[in-house]
From TrEMBL:
Entry-linked PANTHER family: DUF72 DOMAIN-CONTAINING PROTEIN, UNCHARACTERIZED PROTEIN YECE
Name of the protein: DUF72 domain-containing protein
Gene3D superfamilies: Protein of unknown function UPF0759
UniProt-listed Pfam families: DUF72
Listed InterPro entries: DUF72 (IPR002763), UPF0759_sf (IPR036520)
Organism: Marinithermus hydrothermalis (strain DSM 14884 / JCM 11576 / T1)
Amino acid sequence: MRIGTLGYKRDAPLYEGLPYARRFARYAALFDTVELPSTRNRVPSWRTVSRWRARAPEGFRYSFLAPKHLRYTPSGTERRALRRFLRRHRTLGAARGAVRFQLPEDLDPEAFAAWLQLLAEVGIPGEYAFETPRADLAERVLEAGHAVVNHPEGPFLYLIDPPRLPEARGYAYFSRLEDALHALKAKP
């Protein structure tokens, strides 16, 4: 189980006295992954992704949060946006973690089933996790071979603020740095 936080640019005692440019090195010395919430607001540039890849120590993984402008209904525009985003993520190479998709609550199940087919047709395999409170959508996600956020089953686990860490393959991200540090100490 990889352990990290939702973003690493925090004002915390962990970084006390460090210039901003050296904070990531301190973070990566402790954790082996980070979810980058900034990717929800805009697709990062090729230059930014290349810089992230170059800075990642061996074994480190960056997970992305899918763009908020995705509608989860199949269309040519959706296909292009999804492909553009996933190509940037793929550019991370060995530093590529998972992608978390946050599904809207009012999503039509049939449209989402077609969107999952569109995801397969885009042809960029990866570890994809979907966040939804709806059992019908979670079932479709699992049937398509992807993970459901905070769900105990699937091809891998993608956990947000878990109360404890299971012995499994996956990612555990914490909102608070202190909770992530505690999870590191308690890691099985």
